Structures are given as C-alpha cells and as structure tokens.
From TrEMBL:
<feature type="transmembrane region" description="Helical">
    <location>
        <begin position="241"/>
        <end position="260"/>
    </location>
</feature>
<feature type="transmembrane region" description="Helical">
    <location>
        <begin position="563"/>
        <end position="580"/>
    </location>
</feature>
<dbReference type="InterPro" id="IPR050369">
    <property type="entry name" value="RBOH/FRE"/>
</dbReference>
<feature type="transmembrane region" description="Helical">
    <location>
        <begin position="114"/>
        <end position="137"/>
    </location>
</feature>
<dbReference type="InterPro" id="IPR013121">
    <property type="entry name" value="Fe_red_NAD-bd_6"/>
</dbReference>
<dbReference type="InterPro" id="IPR039261">
    <property type="entry name" value="FNR_nucleotide-bd"/>
</dbReference>
<dbReference type="GO" id="GO:0000293">
    <property type="term" value="F:ferric-chelate reductase activity"/>
</dbReference>
<dbReference type="Pfam" id="PF08030">
    <property type="entry name" value="NAD_binding_6"/>
</dbReference>
<keyword id="KW-1133">Transmembrane helix</keyword>
<dbReference type="InterPro" id="IPR013130">
    <property type="entry name" value="Fe3_Rdtase_TM_dom"/>
</dbReference>
<feature type="transmembrane region" description="Helical">
    <location>
        <begin position="157"/>
        <end position="177"/>
    </location>
</feature>
<keyword id="KW-0560">Oxidoreductase</keyword>
<dbReference type="Pfam" id="PF01794">
    <property type="entry name" value="Ferric_reduct"/>
</dbReference>
<dbReference type="InterPro" id="IPR013112">
    <property type="entry name" value="FAD-bd_8"/>
</dbReference>
<dbReference type="GO" id="GO:0005886">
    <property type="term" value="C:plasma membrane"/>
</dbReference>
<feature type="transmembrane region" description="Helical">
    <location>
        <begin position="12"/>
        <end position="37"/>
    </location>
</feature>
<feature type="transmembrane region" description="Helical">
    <location>
        <begin position="57"/>
        <end position="78"/>
    </location>
</feature>
Length: 708
C-alpha cells in the first residue's frame, strides 16, 4: 500500500509539472505580443549574449523547450503508469467525453474538445487583437511602397494573420504522432487525434491565405509584386518562399477534402508528403527567430518517424494462416514476439511488398495479446484496390493448397511487414464501466473482437474467484448492423463464444444483429448462420520455419526510451544552436544535426538489440486455433441472448431506454464504430441520457474511428 501511495504521489507531481509548463507556454503566447514582453525580451537578450547560451540558445530554451519538456514528462508519466496498471489506476481522462455538439458539418464534439477549442480560439483572437491594435497605434509607413493610411493598416493586419498561422503550425504535427503520441497522457490515441490535425491544418491554411492575399493585393495595387517576390533574405523574410509555401499548403488542403481523400487515397497520400517542402519554405519565409517557436512539434514528428522506420525494419513476417470469409474478407494471422502487448481497439499498419512496396494500411487487431501470446490477427474487408488484390492473391492459392506441401504454400503466401501495435496498453477504458454497449456497423465490428475474446477469458478465470465477481457480472450488449447476412461472417473469430451454453463464461455477452437488406420472413438463428459459415470458410495454414524470428519490440517501444531520445534530441539541438554561426541558419542546421545524430543512435541501438534478441530468442509455441465452432453439440443450444432481425434497422432510442431501465445506477459505456450517421444518432441519445439525474443509468459515449 505504501509503494502504491508513493507511486501515485510521483504521478501527481509529474502531472503538476506538465500543467505548469503548459500554463507557462500559454502565458508565453499571451504575453508575446505585449509591450511588457518586448521590453523584458530585450533585457533577456542582453544577459544571454553574456552567457554561453547566446541569442540562439535563448530562443531554443524559451520557444522550443516547453513542448519538448512536456513530451519528455509525458513519456515518463506513461512509463510509470504502465508499471502500475496491475494496481487498477483510475483512467486518466476526465469524464468529459459525452457529446455536446452533434453536427454533420463538424462531427461530434465532446465537452473537453469544446473547452479546448474555445480556449485555443481565445488565444488566437488575443494574439490578433493585441498585435493589430499595437500596430495601428504605432503605425510605421512602408517607405518604398508609398501607401495610404488605409493600405498601411491593411498591410499590418495581413502580416498579423500570418503570426497566428504560426501558432497553428506549432501544434500541427503533434496530433499525428503515432508511437510518440503526447495525447496518450489524456487517454487519447492516434486514431482519435487525427481530426485535431485536420482542424489545425485547415485553420493554418485559412490564416495563411488571408495573410498572403492581403499583402499580395497591396503589392498588386502598387505594381511592385514582382520586385517583392524576388526578395529573398536568409535571416528575415523570403517572400518567394512564402508564396510557394502558400501554394503547396493550398494543394495539400484541397487534396485532403473528403471526396478526394476517400476515392483517391493514394493520390492524397502522395501529395501529403509535400509537407516536407512546405516546412522548408515556411522556415525560409518566417525567418530564423520565428521558426524556433514551431520547431518543437517538427522535432517530435521527425523522432516519431525515425522510431517507426526502425520498428518496421526487422525481417518481414510470414503468415501463420490466411482465411477467406463469405463476406469477401480476409483473416490474416501473423507471428509476433510474446513480449509485444496491446489493448483493445489497437491497430497495426500492414505492408505487403508483392502488392505495393510503399503502401502501409491500418487495420484493427482482432486477437487478444493475453490469450494469443505469439500470434496477432487482423481482418481485412475488400473495399478498395489494395484489399481486393490481397483477397484475389489468397484466393488464387486455394486450388493448389491441398495438393502441395507445407513448404510450398509457405513460399506462395505473401510476406507481410507490420508496424505497431498502436493503441492503449490495456483495457482500462472498458473496465471502468459497469456495463457495456458495443455498437458496430459493417467492418466496424473489428475493434471489439479482441476485447470480447479477452473479456471471455477474464470471466472464465473470475468465475472461480469471489473477489472478481464484479468483473464476472459485467454485461456486454453487442449491437451489430450489416447489409447482408453474409457480412455476419465477420463474427466468426468469436463464433465459439457466441454459441456456448448459459453455464459457460460467455453468458455475459448478448448479441443483437440487424440485417437491413434481406426479407423479414427469414427465421435463421445465430447458430444456423454460424454453422453455415463454418462450412464455407476457406483456410490456408502454414508451418513457419524454426529459424524465423518474429518481430520483436525494439527499445523504442518503451516510453522511457522515447523520453531519453527526446532529451537527447533536445540537448543536441540546443548545443548545435549555440555553436553554429549566424550565417549557417542555426535553426535549420541544428535541426538537421540533432535529427541526424538521433538517427545514428537509433540504428546502432536497433542493431545491438537485434543481436541480443536473436541470441536469446527461445522456442515459440506455434499451435493454430481454428475459427470454426469447436464445441460439442451438447454445449451449443438456442438461447434468447442472441437474436437476428431481418429487414429492419435498430431503434437505438428504444434499446438505450431499455438499458437505462434495467441498469439501475450503473455507469454504462457506449462505444460506437460505424458510419457517421450511426455515430450521430447514438451520440444524441447518450447526450439525452448522459446525466444520472434524468435516468438511473448514466451513459458515457465513446466514438471509435479507424478511417482517415
């Protein structure tokens, strides 16, 4: 008990430090445009020039270090929290996940997100107001342009719109960090933070466009636009670089729109890599002094990229099995190192070189790390060129499967590389609730499969342990909506759990399936449907070589190593900024030096770690689990727990109202993974029943999205 208390105090202290540094960074944004800051900054520069830091070192410490320190403390916090997960620490996110704004245009916005948006918008408004008001009071003419008073005001306003675009740029890359995600401190994973990146990117492009349009319009009036564009000052403003950055930003923004992104994802993905050129031009345009303010997010993104490349470098993994389901989905089972752990809703990025050497696609993991120690499974629905090619490739091997040796179909199955897993380290988000309602549409069922498998195993263990009876009593209501009955074959990985008898450990699970495009007069039950699917699935099983070593987690999978790498990068960046001469563009040179050094350290560390792992890699048990129903006929019986409704859609309001009446004073976690319309409908209901005062049962809404 004493150890737990001291650890909790340490976590609390780290939280306080993170909050204090963040408040300091916010105060920096608030005070930066004021006269108080400008006078204080001149005094600090005088003192810094007399010390070893110098002007560049002062810029790094004041503008670049706050976010880097927050990241370092965040990784330390997550490392300590992962060591305490067996002590059932409370979930880290504040209970502000219930929706407040539900709109087709902006999506579903929770209370926490709304407060963050208001707070961030207030900072931007203050920055714009304070700088423009100061410029208007102390208005200085642009002598070489001979502008009128109105044109001078417009020019100053345009410049200040560019200043608030810098604040958006400072945070732009942080939401898309995968392995080094800082938002994990608040319980948010990579897939849930992508839209913050979209919001920040959109705001930055809008402000930059206003900034560029106003200034170039004034230049156009004075017929000096070409002369101004030719201006390229390495230490101050490079106007041509700004114009090129604006054009690239608009191209990236336009190709990121939903119609283009969804229908032409490869084009969107390729164009998005122009962010590298955009960042370089942005740096030349804003100048050395301003770029120190945005460099911390770029450094973290570069480190994250290095660690991801190092993590995906081990030799490709051969498939244990490949299964074709009637709904045109592929279930792949790969080798993994037993020490790789992950929680429910985690995902991995897959690359199959025989299909495309450059494309990496995210897929939800459907197997539990605590039950399948040396294997990891994903389910892939055919919905595009890449997935259809994979399905056809597996299908083409089936005719020769029975007539060839095991070695032949090992060689014929595609080789797979995977990066990840990315997601929560455990199932705290699911465990914090007394009851669970899991709602899925189509392939949205995949994030839940690993948790259901894990929960079944836990309930089986806890059924003989009185102290864990609360876990054993937790009920899970699974509502699954599909277009055709063949889509129900995506439940095959948990078919044996669905069909076990009432005395088994699966009595906690209740399924309600809705088949919307088939006639109402059908009476097929879950048992009949699953038994039919078990005769239709086609599986290729292989025996991997004994010399094959599955992907092992390298040192960069640990949060403490991320903290060390961030600290190393920050230190090298500071030292190189102090030592480089002004003519060398210190911020750009320091960035290249720090990232290059970290890359070398990463390569050496991975090579050394690989030798140790290959030397100590013990024999891994390789036994396949069939996904067919393996229970004897006596253990399979018809039950009212599972129902299939044909030709109808679920009325979520009735279902939720019923759950509220039978739930007592329970906290019910409602998880939705499906189309936007489904998520919005459920969010409205959760907002209605979210407060305990209106109903005995309190609903807590959580949205799961795995599509960009």
């Amino acid at each position: 008990m004493k150890k737990m208390t001291s650890s909790s105090c340490l976590l609390f202290c780290i939280k306080v430090c993170i909050v204090m540094i963040f408040v300091g960074w916010v105060c920096l944004c608030v005070l930066k445009p004021t006269q108080i800051w400008k006078k204080s900054w001149k005094v600090m520069e005088i003192h810094a020039k007399k010390s070893f830091l110098g002007h560049n070192g002062l810029n790094v410490v004041v503008f670049s270090y706050p976010l880097l320190f927050i990241a370092m403390l965040g990784y330390l916090y997550l490392h300590l929290l992962s060591q305490m997960k067996r002590q059932r620490q409370p979930y880290s996110i504040v209970n502000v996940s219930n929706p407040i704004i539900i709109s087709k245009q902006v999506g579903i916005i929770s209370m926490g997100e709304l407060l963050s948006i208001v707070f961030f918008s207030a900072i931007l408004v203050w920055e714009l107001y304070s700088t423009i008001s100061y410029d208007f009071i102390n208005m200085k003419p642009f002598k070489h342009l001979h502008l009128s008073r109105l044109e001078i005001k417009s020019m100053h306003a345009g410049i200040r719109f560019g200043a608030i675009a810098e604040i958006c740029m400072a945070l732009l890359f942080i939401p898309v960090l995968r392995g080094m995600s800082v938002f994990k401190i608040f319980g948010l994973e990579f897939d849930g933070c992508v839209r913050y990146h979209v919001w920040l990117g959109t705001a930055m492009v809008v402000f930059s466009t206003v900034h560029g349009f106003i200034i170039m319009f004034i230049w156009g009036i004075k017929h000096t636009i070409w002369n101004e564009m030719k201006s390229w000052q390495l230490k101050e403003k490079a106007n041509l670089a700004g114009a090129l950055a604006l054009v690239i930003g608009l191209i990236i923004s336009i190709t990121s729109m939903s119609p283009i992104r969804r229908k032409h994802f490869e084009f969107f993905y390729s164009v998005h890599h122009l962010y590298i050129i955009y960042t370089v031009f942005f740096m030349f345009h804003v100048g050395d002094r301003h770029f120190y303010f945005v460099i911390s997010g770029i450094l973290l993104f570069a480190l994250d990229k290095i660690m991801r490349v190092m993590h995906s470098r081990p030799s490709p993994t051969r498939l244990h099995s490949a299964t074709l389901l009637p709904c045109k989905a592929v279930l792949l089972t790969l080798s993994k190192h037993p020490s790789i752990k992950y929680g429910a809703t985690s995902l991995i990025f897959l690359n199959i070189p025989t299909i495309s050497k450059l494309q990496w696609h995210p897929f939800s993991i459907i197997s539990s790390a605590n039950i399948n120690h040396d294997k990891i499974s994903v389910m892939i629905k055919c919905e595009g060129w890449w997935t259809t090619t994979l399905y056809n490739k597996i299908q083409s091997i089936l005719p020769t499967y029975s007539s060839t040796s095991s070695l032949n179909h090992v060689l014929s199955l595609p080789v797979v590389s995977f990066e990840g897993p990315y997601g929560p380290c455990d199932d705290h988000l699911f465990q914090k609730y007394d009851r669970l309602v899991l709602i899925a549409g189509g392939s949205g069922i995949t994030p839940y499969l690993s948790f259901i498998e894990e929960a079944c195993g836990r309930n089986h263990i806890s059924s003989n342990n009185y102290s864990d009876m609360k876990m054993n009593r937790r009920k899970i209501q699974l509502i699954y909506v599909v277009k055709n009955s063949s889509d129900l074959s995506m439940l095959m990985p948990i078919s044996s759990l669905l069909l076990l008898n009432e005395s088994s450990s699966s009595h906690f699970l209740h399924l309600q399936a809705f088949v919307t495009r088939e006639e109402r007069n059908q009476t097929r039950t879950v048992k009949e449907i699953m038994e039919g699917f078990s005769q239709q699935v086609q599986t290729i099983q292989t025996t991997p070589s004994d010399h094959e070593h599955p992907n092992a987690p390298n040192m960069f999978s640990c949060n403490w190593s991320k903290m060390v790498m961030t600290g190393l990068c920050a230190s090298i960046f500071l030292v190189s900024s102090v030592l480089l001469k002004p003519q060398c563009i210190p911020v750009f040179g320091s960035f290249l030096i720090s990232v290059g050094c970290c890359w070398i350290v990463a390569v050496v560390a991975v090579k050394n770690g690989k030798r140790e792992k290959h030397g100590n890699c013990g024999e891994i048990v390789r036994e396949m689990k069939t996904i067919c129903v393996n229970e004897s006929s006596s253990s399979i019986l018809e039950s009212d727990r599972h129902k299939v409704y044909y030709g109808s859609r679920p009325v979520f309001s009735d279902l939720m109202e019923f759950k509220g009446e039978e739930g007592g004073d329970d906290d019910v976690g409602v998880f939705v993974c499906g189309p936007d319309s489904m998520q919005e409908t459920v969010a409205v209901i959760c907002r209605k029943y979210g407060r305990r005062s209106t109903n005995n049962c309190s609903f807590h809404f959580h949205s799961i999205k795995f599509s960009l």
